[in-house]
Protein: AtzE family amidohydrolase
Amino acid sequence: MEVVESALADIAVRDRTLNCFTAVTADRARAEAAAVDAAVAAGRDPGPLAGVPVAAKNLFDIEGLTTLAGSKIERDKPAAARDTFVLRRLRAAGAVPVGALNMDEYAYGFTTENHHHGPTRNPHDPGRIAGGSSGGSAAAVAAGLVPLSLGSDTNGSIRVPASLCGVFGLKPTYGRLSRGGAYPFAASFDHVGPFARSAADLALAYDAAQGADPDDPAQQWREPAPASPLLDSGIGALRIAVADGHFARNGHGEAFAAVAAAARALGATARVEVPEAARGRAAAFLITMAEGGNLHLPDLRTRPDDFDPMTRDRFLAGALLPASWLLQAQRVRAAYRARVLPLFEEWDLLLTPATPYVAPRIGQDTVEVDGEAVPVRPNLGVYTQPISCIGLPAMSVPLVDPGAAGAPGGLPIGLQLVAAPWREDLLFRAARALERAGVAGSPTPPR
Structure:
């Protein structure tokens, strides 16, 4: 109860500036905290996350709250009758939900500059974005408002804000964690996953969230693959390479310096081309637009003015894409996957940047990259989209000292670890090795 009361008090004061939360479930949190204390007092095992405050992106069903998915349109819908599957799993491990977190409308964005709920601000510089679309989830953990949170990742919406806020974020293999009770964006791309300030905390959340759920038809259930026992097993003879080509362009120096620091610590000297990454990313753009536009077509026809202006036109464009474009994008996606998977016969892990630069300022429209002005928002996913396009597991790992990598103002920046499908265990081993080497860790924001 003391832990939860402290978290609620902190949220009440500091979230006025950061705007991470769209709802705080204080009464429920107190009741569940009391139940954990009662279990401890009775000598029962309260679970590995006993009393840990947790919050979830507001596209996850939270019992008693309307699932907003960052929108105005969903406000009139009934409140959720029960929690989303992964939140139920965390509660079964003892975690205590304290609220719902801000996001880009319908998860279509990389900045969490939400027209309806206001922007979430980066705890390291409130004038800058937190990233998106799970910006509230990343910022709440970075600020220490909660130690764990849940987000979703379609094209990078966990890994981008994790990098910009300086926390760990996991996008598991497509189908590993259930999406039951989570509002969809683009069903063939959507993933869910946790945020935390250390590899160990991330592993605890990931382990607890696993389970078979018949409500997610895309889930490809496999027996649990616990990460926690593997954290300190070291990298041993893992074959690790730095991704070249597409992943060595399109960004600023701090993004590549983060990868170089990780490569030195992990002894990764080889470089490998990820074939057709740019085309894979292009296919991801089109398929995402089409699936999202189709999902929201009824409201686009009848309530276009109720959409966030930053998402409406992209959904409309997706709804109007020619079928031949979508078919070709799916062919490219399949061909790209067939070219990439053989890389993991030779390599266990790939290192790439997580984001192309540190957090831009709120309202900033363009940034210069390779001598050319590019749009800020879509370019934030330049390194994450080619990975989620084919469902590979990936983790954003923060640099403990981003200033040493030349990050402007010492702002956070992360690197991305990528593994073969179902090998999340390798991501955790490498992340823990980077922590032990003094390379990875969540930098503490100013208070």
